[in-house]
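Exercise: predict the structure of this protein bound to glutamine.
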Amino acid sequence: MQKGYLLLETGHVFEGTLLGNSLESTGEVVFNTSMTGYQEIMSDPSYAGQIIVFCYPLVGNYGINEADFESNKLYIRGIVTGEICVNPQHFQMKETTVDTLNRNGINGLTGVDTRQIVKIIRKYGSVKGKITTNPSNVSFNADTTFFIDQVSTKSIQKYSNDGPHVVLIDYGSKKSILRALLNENCKVTVVPYNTTLVEIQKLNPDGIVLSNGPGDPMALSEYLKDIKLITEMYPTLGICLGHQLIALAHGGKTTKLPFGHRGGNHPVKEVETGKVFITSQNHGYVVDEKSIINNQNFHITYFNINDRTVEGIRHKQLPISSVQFHPEANPGPQDTEHIFKKFIKNIHQGELTYAAQ
Ligand SMILES: NC(=O)CC[C@H](N)C(=O)O
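Solution:
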């Protein structure tokens, strides 16, 4: 058992026990309020470069299995827990959480009052932090890594099926998005984030999905022109980062939330029906409300009940829609699975819309 520390750029220091076999790592410290789903959270590529503080006091009690990974590799910079279970039990379990951290060279710290860290992040906003063995090492270098390059697929991946052909643009897509599309019988082609408009046209898709992904959506500004054209050619669904990119491509704006939404119980209201859905979320940026209200072509379809931020938008004429939350769930509620069904319906109706132009 080695002593370790979480140092925050606010000057706060937390002492705990080091997990994993990497001795030092730095990243944006974010908290997740989900009570379960640590495996999906740790393997969600949208967390690339971040240190995840789990609010739920115990992590690891049902181990890690083969089925629930959201990516093949872990891209996080570390986890911080109140308690870690070193002797988990579950019939599907293949390894412990600490085994997974070690296998991926990821750092961790346990035995820390994570509620205190959450209070600090809520007070100061998003903060940088460091997991280290040396509590006096308080320098924080600016991290300008472009993570999408690391998390996106390097080559085109094809999945055959009988339904409509969907091109999934991979900015660090969770596996659950692919699973949800295959579940809807879609033939899916996963393409790298920098695939050009012409290359996508050659694939002859029936619809496009823009995936989730890490970092500031503005880091992809050079691709916005192509994204706008693609969305105007094919029925499109954007999820999380994909949603932010659609908004930006069509003249909207994004801003950074003080400490983000990360958890499995975020209530969103559907404007059209007044229905409330409980959603799975993981984002630090958000589409600016005014920039959509002032946009002639888009309207807001969902908003967050806790802070009234934008949770979904739709084009007024074309079948382009996007959501900030995660309809693919995992972890978290599956209440918004119907978003995928609506998208497939849009694809069929979209054929008519585009043919009429
Ligand atoms: N899950 C996501 O796609 C996150 C989108 C973006 N990186 C954000 O933090 O807002």
